[in-house]
Specification:
The chain is of the alpha/beta class. It has helices spanning about 5-20, 40-55, 70-80, 90-100, 140-145, 160-175, 185-195, 205-215, 235-240, 260-275, 280-285, 295, 300-320, and strands spanning about 30-35, 60-65, 85-90, 115-120, 120-130, 155, 180, 200-205, 220, 250, 250-255. Helix 2 (about 40-55) crosses helix 10 (about 260-275), helix 4 packs across helix 13 and helix 6 packs across helix 13 (about 300-320). The protein starts with a helix and ends in a 5-residue tail after the last helix.
């Protein structure tokens, strides 16, 4: 009877041989999205899956595995077979902040994954109730928060969400005491902003843009380093209160640790081809995404960026006093 190790070695060699022989991919590839269908991460993943599948021998399909702030889906990929057929659509929440939010994380964002490619960034927009005088601009908002510690309410889509983390980072750097109000998603948060029950919300630019243009909410500042061309009338935090400040929701493609390099290169090549498509790139920019330099999209750059982000958010979470779960 063959030993466990001989079987495992034969299996690993078969995977490498399949990829190296040029037969890869022999079946559809899966992008695991650890959030429910229809959300910002899911929409972005499906856009890339569709574009990266064009001309490929196999399609890329999206599998939604929501739960526990994205950590369930991330853990599933971390423990999956590293054969080049399962990839994770990573997000700042479960690939960086989770290391500081959870006492026991079922995976290591750095050690359990191989980085593949970094998507365009999504800056955030500070959305506020237009009916309150202190939300007219960032200056008045900061004055109100300093004069009324803890009175300014900032909604978020849940503890550990991008909106929660960015709000904590901004409040920390501005030395403000605010009250974070978690919701189950941004939709109910928007309803309460429009109803005057909470003051503000940091939302991603791609989903904030139509809300601002509707006139029902006010866009006060963005976290981009430069004004967004889609919303040129909204200043940045960098040009108003925090020079040099820049923050965004970031995404990337990750594979289980030990995935054959040829499979990672295949996925990156498909990604790079998509990013070089001017029509696809314009579609992303028009939707509110911000392009990053090609060198920062590469696997090694994403790996280094992930390591830095893990340490950054550990500090932000500790400094903000966000309790570990």
């Amino acid at each position: 009877m063959k030993s466990f190790w001989s079987i495992a070695l034969a299996s690993a060699l078969a995977v490498v041989s399949s990829v190296a022989s040029g037969a890869y991919p022999e079946r559809p590839i899966t992008f695991v999205v650890p959030f429910a269908a229809g959300g910002a991460t899911d929409v972005l993943a499906r856009q890339f899956a569709e574009r990266m599948s064009r001309g490929a021998a196999q399609n890329i399909i999206v599998d939604n595995v929501p739960g526990a702030g994205g950590t369930i889906g991330a853990a599933k990929v971390a423990k999956s077979k590293p054969d080049g057929y399962t990839f994770l659509i990573g997000h700042v929440g479960y690939m960086a902040a989770a290391a500081g939010l959870y006492r026991e994380l079922p995976y290591d964002p750095v050690k359990d994954f191989d980085a593949v490619a970094r998507f365009p960034d999504t800056p955030l927009v500070l959305i506020c109730d237009p009916g309150k005088p202190y939300t007219s601009d960032i200056g008045n908002l900061v004055k109100y928060a300093r004069a009324n510690p803890g009175r300014l309410t900032i909604a978020n889509a849940g503890v550990g969400s991008s909106g929660h983390l960015i709000a904590a980072l901004v409040a920390s750097q501005l030395k403000l005491q605010v009250t974070h109000v978690p919701y189950k998603g941004n939709a109910p948060a928007y309803s309460d902003i429009m109803g005057g029950r909470v003051d503000c919300l940091f939302d991603q630019s791609n989903t904030a843009m139509p809300q601002v243009k509707s006139g029902k909410v006010r866009g006060v500042v963005t976290t981009a380093i430069e004004r967004l061309p889609q919303m040129p009338g909204i200043p940045t935090i960098a040009e108003t209160e925090l020079p040099g400040f820049q923050a965004a929701t970031w995404y990337g493609i990750f594979a289980p640790k030990g995935t054959p390099r040829e499979a990672i290169q295949w996925a990156f090549d498909r990604f790079e081809e998509a990013m070089k498509d001017p029509d696809f790139a314009k579609k992303l920019v028009d939707a509110g995404y911000v392009m990053i330099p090609p060198a920062e999209q590469r696997p090694e750059a994403l790996a280094a960026y992930t390591r830095r982000q893990v340490e950054l958010w550990k500090k932000v979470i500790a400094d903000a006093g966000i309790p570990r779960q």
